Amino acid sequence: MKMPNRDPGLWAFVLWWIDAHQTTIYGAFLALVTAYIRVTYSGGSVRQRVLESLMCGAISLSLMSAMEWIGVPTSASGFIGGMVGFLGVDKLRSAAELFLTKKAGGDGQN
Questions:
Q1: Structure pTM?
Q2: Do 20 and 57 touch, CB atoms closer than 8 A?
């Protein structure tokens, strides 16, 4: 039985999009998996595993969108995704606060 409303062009577009963004997808997925395994290894709950891995995936996506802007090749997305997942949200937040405090000329005290 044929389905007249099936559009093979949609699947072609989806496959094209995946191929065009494979490095970004790979980096975000690597961050997600690495964070999940890290939290599991340290004895975190299921809630902590899921939330930490999703946040690491989101952070790595935002960093990968800035890679070209700061001059890092897109082939390094696996490294960036792995490091984001390995370090975790808390360490990245601390590093970002320290960096922004130095750039703003603050004394480092809240």
A1: 0.78
A2: no
